[in-house]
Amino acid sequence: MRAARRARIVGDADLRQGRCLEIGPLANPVVSPEVADVRYVDVVDRAGLVAHYDGDPAVDPDEIPEQHFWLTRPDGTVSTLAEAVAADAPYQHVVASHVIEHVPDVLGWLRDVAEVLTHDGALLLAVPDRRYCFDVHRAPATVGQVVQAHLDGDRTPSARAVLDHFMRAVDYSAEQAWAGEQPPTEGSHPLDDVRRLLARQRAGEYVDCHVWPLTPQVFAGLMDDLLALGEVGFAVERITATRVGDQEFYATLRRLDRRREPAAAAAEARSALARIRSALPDESPSPRSGDTELVPAHVVADLEQQLAETRERLMKVRSARDRARRERDEARAAATAAEAADGAGLVGRLGRRLRR
């Protein structure tokens, strides 16, 4: 299961080429030392992670690996990713599974990742789709929010992010979403808890939350806007649709060549991204009949995409089958011709002997 998911996250990237940095592996690293030459980085060191997740049934402390780097300094301040790993950079691949949605300043974070990558390095992402998790009631992230967080210099999730997360989060799974169940209207965090968390945030604590609710189309749109503004140094090579029954999508971002003129590189990247966006399923909700939703538009689109992929594979199989049949028929015809030629030659030789 872990190998299959790693393959979906990595896509066509070869992790054996160059060194790899995984951000926030917690107790379930995507990349193990057996797979690649990998380093791990998180907000705190392993001891801090074990203490933070003590008693959390979803996290096995024994599975948390040693962190090579961490962002929190001895004085409690938080460094940037680029500052934390500077002595060990650059890396050919940076892997981040369910990380980007937590990052307080995602624009600054993308710039940090670009800084620690080789000139042609790639950022490999697994991202939760807000439609299939506790973020279902939240509005999608906007480019204005992304730029504002960067201008504000957010090193910890903002009051806006903490309130949006804890006020709107509900107990809702991917299984329920794909089964067509309506999400609950009652939030999963009591108001007193929300107030305490906001107070902690205002006191300067790092209150972890989903800062950026995303979907494949929303993420593609944000990247396009940031490329248009000249604010990001990545081209988008891949964004997948969220698979039916799943709750995450995958993306590959390739660092722009800094030797090129920035505007031309960004324009080329936007053109490629437009093709990727056009291939993604439409995420607009399907029409309703009374209070009953018909088959959701994203389900139909995803199934149609899978059907198209199946048809394409079938066409390739049929083409290979037809080619094999042609080659077989040609071989048989050649063999028949050869046998006929041999037979004619034998008859001729016998005739000559009889005439003697």
UniProtKB/TrEMBL annotation:
Give me the segments passing through the membrane.
none
User: Which chain positions lie within coiled-coil regions?
Assistant: 300-341
Q: Please provide the Gene Ontology terms (biological process) for this protein.
A: methylation
Classify the source by domain of life: Bacteria
Keyword line? Coiled coil, Methyltransferase, Transferase
Q: State a single Gene Ontology molecular function.
A: methyltransferase activity
Q: Which Gene3D superfamilies match?
A: Vaccinia Virus protein VP39
Record's SUPFAM superfamilies?
Answer: S-adenosyl-L-methionine-dependent methyltransferases (SSF53335)
Pfam families registered for this protein in UniProt:
Methyltransf_23
Protein name, UniProt field:
Methyltransferase domain-containing protein
Q: What organism does this protein naturally occur in?
A: Nocardioides pini
